[in-house]
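Summary of Year 1 activities. Much of the first year was spent building the evaluation harness for sequence design. The harness presents a backbone, in tokenized form, and records the residue chosen at every position. We chose the following record to illustrate the format because it has been used consistently in internal testing since the harness was completed.
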């Protein structure tokens, strides 16, 4: 689920917290990064569970409607297409998903059910819901496409839900785009006989990415003095106290990748940190960071310090 860009964001956040701490405890910040990363998986579970609870709410609503004293014909014989949606039923019956939710003690939508109701009401008012419900029959693929459209158009962009998630856990907002994208990819992979684990992604793609996250944090921090000196020596016309703390952190992380990660191409490193600066730092940060990194790459090439492994990794 975590891509390299998001790993960089997690490391950046940990390094920033370390820079603001009076007692600079690298072990503590590594634990902070690991906890923040694990919470991303919690967010994934919460968002999938939201679909489960909306489905459960719809079933409960129909059952209560049938029991009304003055039930109408549509109450007595409701359209069951949504509650019988094959993908939603498979999620509701997924024991592995429920086990993961229980282990993480995630019970958000039972406690804050108003968001379930809110999104369900927006769903039943939508045109694509009406079109889906009017179809005489649907197969697994059509049910899946409907759930993906529902998630993409009504769940992922919901402002009220966004505010709730931000209030519940601030780090989730940075994680939400990656989580939503992963959910859509996982839903797309579902088939009628898919294993329960299909909907549950690995937090890291592989052990190499897990190690990359740890190494980037530790190597950047442990070489902080060296990287600080490089910045000071290559920004002679800048008041050092006025260089944004986050800009320095991004430059140091980039220098760490230049010098300590032989397999990462220079161009990839530069592009990634320029994008992060545009998203997280000041409007002019990307120009400043690009200038510093460009000078240092030229310097390192002349000094023979860019020991990149593989063809095309320096150009």
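For this record, the design step produced the sequence shown next.
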């Amino acid at each position: 689920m975590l891509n390299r860009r998001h790993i960089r964001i997690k490391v950046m956040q940990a390094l920033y917290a370390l820079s603001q701490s009076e007692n600079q405890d690298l072990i503590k910040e590594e634990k902070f990064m690991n906890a923040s990363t694990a919470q991303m998986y919690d967010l994934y579970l919460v968002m999938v569970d939201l679909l489960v609870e909306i489905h459960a709410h719809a079933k409960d609503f129909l059952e209560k409607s049938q029991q009304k004293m003055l039930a109408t014909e549509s109450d007595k014989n409701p359209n069951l297409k949504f509650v019988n949606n094959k993908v939603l039923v498979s999620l509701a019956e997924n024991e592995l998903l429920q086990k993961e939710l229980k282990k993480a003690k995630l019970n958000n939508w039972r406690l804050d059910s108003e968001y379930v109701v809110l999104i369900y009401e927006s769903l039943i008012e939508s045109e694509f819901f009406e079109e889906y419900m009017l179809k005489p029959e649907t197969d697994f693929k059509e049910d899946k496409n409907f759930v993906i459209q529902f998630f993409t158009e009504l769940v992922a962009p919901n402002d009220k839900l966004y505010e709730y998630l931000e209030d519940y856990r601030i780090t989730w907002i940075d994680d939400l785009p990656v989580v939503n994208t992963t959910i859509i990819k996982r839903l797309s992979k579902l088939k009628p006989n898919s294993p329960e684990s299909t909907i549950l992604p690995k937090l890291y793609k592989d052990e190499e990415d897990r190690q990359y996250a740890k190494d980037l944090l530790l190597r950047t921090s442990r070489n902080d003095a060296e990287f600080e000196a490089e910045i000071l020596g290559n920004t002679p016309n800048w008041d050092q106290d006025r260089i944004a703390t986050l800009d320095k952190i991004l430059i140091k992380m980039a220098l760490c990748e230049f010098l300590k990660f032989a397999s990462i191409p220079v161009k990839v490193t530069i592009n990634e940190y320029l994008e992060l600066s545009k998203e997280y730092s000041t409007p002019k940060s990307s120009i400043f960071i690009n200038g510093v990194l460009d000078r240092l790459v030229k310097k390192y090439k002349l000094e023979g310090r860019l020991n990149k492994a593989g063809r095309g990794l320096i150009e």
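The mean pLDDT is 91. Quantitative recovery figures across the full test set are reported in Table 2.
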